[in-house]
Write a structure and sequence with these properties.
This protein is of the alpha+beta class. It has five helices and five strands. The protein has two domains: about 50 residues, no CATH class; about 80 residues, Aminopeptidase. About 45% of the residues lie in helices and about 20% in strands. Strands 1-2-3-5-4 form a five-stranded mixed β-sheet. This is GNAT family N-acetyltransferase.
Length: about 150
């Protein structure tokens, strides 16, 4: 699962679902007063600005970045090529849709999958819950040959 065009997906999401996102976010904050107070102090201005005017973040001019969100394979099928086939098909669809790069954020065993299949690791970070996250990418302009 993913989006072939990150910018178009974000604009579509904020255009069609802005009100629902706002309501769910506000509801979640209202039941957590301390989180609400911190949000209002540190992040509210930036979030409200984005809700008013969606911006396309992360893309370099002349590139269309696609996001791979998740590849799900039943445990009994691991190491059988299903994940590789699903990923290859997603990359094919992205290239046909005009994407020049595909990115994915992974943790745990998923990081190993992307390493084994030739994705380039760009950066790492630790999530607030302590998980180690790694950003991987593929450049489709060279046909994904670096993979």
């Amino acid at each position: 699962m993913g989006a072939v065009d990150r910018g178009a997906f974000r604009v579509e999401l904020l255009t069609r679902h802005r009100r629902a996102l706002l309501m769910f976010g506000a509801g979640a904050l209202l039941v957590r007063p301390r989180v609400l107070a911190r949000f209002l102090r540190t992040r509210s201005t930036a979030y409200l600005r984005r809700l008013r005017r969606p911006r396309i973040a992360g893309a370099t001019p002349g590139t269309a970045v696609a996001d791979l969100t998740a590849i799900a394979v039943a445990p009994r099928l691991h190491r059988g090529g299903a994940g590789r086939a699903l990923t290859a098909e997603f990359l094919r669809i992205c290239a046909a849709g005009g994407a020049t790069h595909v990115e994915v954020v992974a943790d745990g065993a998923a990081s190993g999958f992307y390493e084994r299949t030739g994705w380039r690791c760009g950066r790492t970070a630790t999530a607030r819950d302590g998980r180690s996250l790694r950003w991987f990418s593929v450049d489709l302009r060279d046909g994904g040959r670096d993979r």
